[in-house]
Every structure is written in structure tokens, then in C-alpha cells.
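Residues pack. Consider this:
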Amino acid sequence: MPGVDTLDGLLRAVAEFRTDDYELRAEQGALDRARRSIEESGLLLLGEVHGVRENPLIIRALMRALGLTHLALEWPGDLKHQLDVYLSEGTGLDHPLWWLGDGRVTAGHLAMLKAIPGLSVTLFDGGMFTGDWSQRDALMAERVLTARLEPALVVAGHAHALTSPTELGLPMGACLASARPSLESVRIDYGTGGYYAIEPRQTRGYSAPDGLRVVDGELVVGLPVFHEATVPHLPVELLRERLGL
């Protein structure tokens, strides 16, 4: 399993991750729409494909461009204490929920969180998936709204950040948009590259040009080339043992 599977390996990858090697180009009209979403709804959504190295760089660049210091992530809420310990002391990464390997948590995210001055973080995933996709998304939206974290960037998997119903059900983004009609969602438009979600994966395609822009009426961050993230991932048998399952 190519994902990093030792604490030393993860800490080394975090230390080696450069948080300053990405510059977000932004069309003024797109930036104005993102700002308006923050001003009128208090929130801006960002939809990602998990396990991409550049995701945390885009998060940091968007927050910097919009003057934000509050971030909400689709990470297990049970990790909040461990995250606070990590941010204050550099420890706390031994909890098994860090090591699921689905690509939500990466070495780059952990480095990025340390690099934003005055950052506060909310984690809004409630735990194990029950099988009811829409119910999970409704609960995530409720946690975002009741946290009263505005103004904030809210980051989730692409399918959860959509603001209209889909074939999977009613996404978190649609629930949030119902409560905050002026909410906007930004989609990362991936081109060709690799990502890590349980295992290394590759995809080839075309994206919008690099940077934040409006494409066909929606906000997108074009990422023509992207790379596989370093993801903490333990074998499922070991995870089950450590989680007491």
C-alpha cells in the first residue's frame, strides 16, 4: 500500500511540504462573486477530489485572497481535540481516524493548517457512513450552520459541495444554499494527474485554464495538471483493531 503508514513518515512528509509554491490567478469578476458569497451568506463552498496534492494550496490561496481565517473541513468531528493538539504542540496524529486513507487528510493539509496565522478550524463530518447519502449531507449542513463560523471557507468532496440535487441525493451544498440563497460554490476543475483515495489513481482530461474564473456561469479553479498527495493510510485490519470495530 503506497500511502504513508508510519507516524515518522507522515511527519517527515508534512515537514517537507512547501506551502508557498502556488499562486492563485483570479479573474476580477470571479473574485467579486466569491467575495459577495462571503459577504451575503457568510460562507463560500469549495468542492475537491480528495487525495490531490494541490488541494490544500488552493485552500490557502483562496483564504488569503478573501481575507478569511476560518476554515470548515469534511473531516471527522471526533478529531477536533487531536487537531487542536497538533496545531498547538505538533503531536496528536496517532489517532486511527487520521489514517483512513480516503484522501481527505493529507500531509499537505496538515502543513497548510500550520501555515495560516490566526486560523480556526471546524470539522463537520459526524462519523461513519450510514448508507443514507442525503441524510449524511443534511447532517453535515446542519453542523456547518449551527457552528456559526461565518465568515468561512467550507471544503468538502465535490459531490457534497454541489448546490443542486444530484443522482446521489440532496447534497450538503444544496441544503446550505436553501438556508443561505446567496451562497456560491467553487469547483476545482482537474485536468490530468494522479490522486490518492484508498489507492493511487490516475485520470487524464482537460480543465479550464489555471486559476479562479467563471466558466459556463459557475466558479471554478482550473488545475490543468495535478499530483498525488501523501495520505496517511493504515491497513483496514489494523484500523479496525485500533477503532475497536
User: Anything to note?
Assistant: The longest strand covers residues 184-197.
